[in-house]
Amino acid sequence: MHALAKSLIFFSLAVSLHCQGQAPAPQQQRDLDVVPDLPAKQSAPQIPRSYALVVGISKYKNLPVKAQLQYPDRDAADMYSTLISEKAGQFPAEGVHELINEHATLANLKQELETWLPSVTGPNDRVFIYFAGHGFISGGKAYLAPYDVDPAKVASTAYPMDELGQAIGNRIHGKWKVLLTDACHSGAITPEDDTAQVNHSLLDLNSSMFSLTASRDREQSFESPQWGGGHGIFTYYVIQGLQGEADTSGDGVVTADELAEYVHTNVRLATHMLQNPTSDRGSFDPNMVLAFNPGSNGPKNCTGANCAGKLRYGTFVIETNMDDVEVWLDGKSLGIFKKGVPQRFPGLTPGPHTLKGAHQGYEPDGPREEQIYPGQDTTVAVRILIAQRRNHAAQEIFDRGLERYTKGFAANYKVAADDFEQALSIDPSYSQAALYLGRTYHALFEEEKAKDALKKAIEIDPAYLEARLSYAAVLLDTGELDEAIRQLDAVSKQDPTNGMAWYLQSQAFLRKGSYGQAVDAGEQAVKITPANAEAHLWLGEALRRNGQCEPATSQYNNYLSLSNFNSALAGKLNYYVLGSLFGMGTKKRATQQDIWRELRAQAYEGICDCDWMRKSYDDAAIQCHKVLSLVPDDLFANYRLGLVFTEQYNSIGGLALLQEARKYFDAVIAINPDTDEAQRSRKYVANIDSVLARTQP
Q1: What SS3 state is found at 163?
Q2: Residues 248 and 124 grouped into a single domain
Q3: pLDDT > 90? residue 218
Q4: H/E element, 369
């Protein structure tokens, strides 16, 4: 039987560095497809595959209180959102790794710069590295300060900038390389005493690198709440520039030259020339695309390649009349505002800008146009005054629809959808009716209608986080993972304690194959909502795919314990009620009981797979049989059981084991004959039949 053992071998499945001190008062996927239907002057640029590392450290493990920083973590979080935005960086979310605060250790920094980026980048890629935190000069050398830097041992606990240059120039591949550092000594990365020599050592001369640093050597880099509610001034203007303010040509593209000019001009003016960003002007490709917004026409009142010198930027000073008002400027969220705390947004191009403020439960203020004047502050008051008043007839119809909706099942959903449509037609501002209309269509598998309704709910009330979560769940079910991540990122930015936003992000990153990011999001979800079952499920899935079976099995068991209620109850639960227990974005079948069964089967399947990888074949068989008790037509569990019995036969012999393996391989072929597993199963069946034929009397 040893020959058979060999014949049955299976295929395995497989840098903003900030200084302390008060800032001076200011003076006043993969390759992207061409975007269709652009104006004639906007031909979409060819944006290559893109990767980024974003690092932001506000709180340091070994530094005294007075040396801690306020905003680098927020700087990095907003930089991440800008890079993955379809209206700015257009980076795929799985291609942007974040190291924030305690995650930004020296070991992790080395891993990302010296292992991850070199392993994923190619010669035609775009690479973006951003660092916000402290920097040190020690022994005449410049260093980036990771979270665990020891000021008494800088040389052994910090990251040398010359090693950063070597990594970017020699290890990390790409035709467009971008390095942004915002630090007290960030200028030391290209010391002014011998720029040409340093550039020669930093750069791979066959590649292109755009290096923009927050300040000259020995200058301070300021951070303050007066820039966008709290940012390093350098990063504030970088983000504004990438989001379109630097696009002086009006073609929708932000180039390296445009960003450098915009940031340099505005930072110098805002700090009375105390801080002077520097860039290497000689080494990068002038066609390098840093950001692209296909709907942007560039600065208002300015066209042509030479308009940058004619602009003088202005400032909005925005205040609100109540707490927890979210404000949007030109369609981009500026964050949540507090009453009586004005926030400054300088660096805006002259001309009209669109402003909107919203607070859930109230009529929004705007959208309306406000004018920016060159070199001036414009104070704008956002006033939330009128509580939403529902039309009585619309309210009654909505309540009737909600009662039907909560009963679950397709017949009730169809009637509920009519009610929600009617309520929304009577009161077009009824965001809750739009939300539940979207949820109802989602339950009926009418996904395009569901997305339209949920987008309507968000359009009516941009601060409606529940609508964004529901929209993200539909996007997960339709496979639109990048937009789902953008919606979930918006929710977690406004509500960092929203556990559902985090474990839906974990699911999205898992499905994109970015297992490390999936683990990070899943761990955050479990930390925030330890009693939520699905947070544990998706963390378990992420850990297993990341090769961490022991902690994965623990998370699967946590999920099974937390979801261990009577399955008959699940059959009575509406999909989104079940979603409140487990989460959303996992719907495959029409009934809620099927959802409950599928989720539990998924956990058993994960444990089965881990047992298989540990070669605990008896335990694997037990767990995979549990899967089939819930979902008999689960292809992977049938396939895994076929392999389990094959391995047991290879180890101990016994034709009965072969016959059992054949049964499960046959099931795989019957379930879906077009899969890779079915193709392999046919080969196993042929081998098994050959052995059985030879053993017949």
Answers
A1: helix
A2: yes
A3: no
A4: strand 365-372
